[in-house]
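Question thread 4412

I'm putting together a teaching handout and wanted feedback from people who do this every day. The idea is simple: show students a protein as raw sequence, then show them the structure tokens that encode its fold, then repeat with a second protein so they can compare. Below is the first pair exactly as I plan to print it.
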Amino acid sequence: MQIKELINNPTLAGQVRLIENVTYAAADGEALHLSLLVPWLQRHRVAELAPRPLLVFVQGSSWQRPTLGEEIPQLVQYVHQGFVVATVQHRNAIEGHPFPAFLQDVKTAIRYLRAHAAQYAIDPHQVVLWGTSSGGNAALLAALTANDPAYRTADYPDQSDQVNAVVACFAPTDVADTFAYTQHVPGSDLLKICLFGQDPAQWPAKMKEMSPLYRIQPGQTYPAFLLLHGDADQVVPYHEMEDMATALAAAGVAVEAVRVKGADHEKDFWSPAVYQTVADFLARQIELEPTAK
């Protein structure tokens, strides 16, 4: 019998490690978790790894607790392109954590990852934030309120929550408009109570505060944005993406907008072309090692 021979892989090139359920903070007595995708070499010889840009992903969840693993199979490709990827959990609005709890948590996770940059071979100076649906809302808000003390917890006080680029897919940008669009969906009224409180008179102001469309401030410096949205979305109306792109551009902010023709919310939105569009945008914004694996 002939025995085939393969050469070993001393640098562990092409291998990806999943680090699950890392506790990054505790809020209201509740542990908050994230999961990481890193080169396998991080486990054995992290000192040999050049620091990599960080991609922080927030899964859509109707502002409830995100599923950490929802997009992990697709996110692996970005590790091969040169990133460390983190997927982030936040508190659940339905369980008594109203706005801005989810926003505070996403910002805290970014600061945690910067504080532990050496452990995970992260370049703390290159951070990208990507969110879908309610996670996209969180990503946009986080980028537009960088280091705002109104949304800052006491965790990792020496770190910044500022990011270098943002990707938002089918994100609510005008929260009042989104809730009006889905007013007949069961549970919509309950979610509004959980997010904004028992007094409906207070809702308009809180909805506006939670709407990225109204958080753009003239003269401020913001990162570059990539917005993607399906024009057949039945949960968040497509025009919200166009409105957000127009407002960012009017403020002199770098923004790219992509219409996914015929796509609903999640479902048929995703495709290799969408993931490649994100990769191309990130390559224009972030310095990547050309041979990163």
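The second pair follows. I'd like the answer to focus on this one:
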Amino acid sequence: MRTRVITAIVALAIFLPIVFAGGIWIQILAALLAVIATGEIVMMRRTLLVDFGAILAMLGAAIMTLPSEFMTALNAPVIMHRSTMLYVFVLLMLVHTVLAKNKFNFEDAGVFTLAMMYIGLGFHMFVQARFAGLGALFFVLLIVWTTDSGAYMIGRKIGKTKLAPAISPNKTWEGSIGGTLVAVLVAAVYAYFVPLQFSWGVMVFISLLVSISGQFGDLIESALKRFYKVKDSGTILPGHGGILDRFDSMLIAFPVFYLLGGMG
């Protein structure tokens, strides 16, 4: 427990100043986190980090995090646009399956491509939320954190009906619903003090869907770990596991928030 608390304090001491600073600092942070998280999936799959396919996946995830305005501001050629570069990375992975003589196969390429997109675009939306303003960013973070805490506490007290026993045995429907209600309530209080661009009714709707999507993000990562038979995605955070363990909910919550129009 002591290790978890110390790690959390140190992580927040690094994370929060960078979030407040924004700009290039938040972009560097997102790219670094995306590389580490993608590397965790590579290691779960028992592929060497120096494998060409793994390097492509980690580099691709980092590039996917870049804000939409980045290439435009640089007047970059079409080949450097995100959608084009994604195709280039996929093409290189497929070529690698031939050159590696199937030691790196089509399945590996598919897993790494999905990981690159899932993680890279998730952190991209995290950066976009910061560019939209601290109010929007902390709105999503607060929903994710209170959903997780509320679900844990309520689940421990009254949880009886298993939510997804084959994937995450400790989660319950009571905890899930309770966590969502807590998050919506906290989001309403937050919106009262921090003006957002949408009406109160829309805010409740958005906070509800963001809370639910964050829980799906958690379950997606649980399914991934269950499939690869590992307890944590990594060991970089003592007592907390890996980067993917800490950001799994956000990788789904931020894209959903964006799709709902929360970033303007």
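Top answer:
Good format. For the second protein you could add a caption like this: The beta strands are 162-164, 168-172. The radius of gyration is 19 Å.
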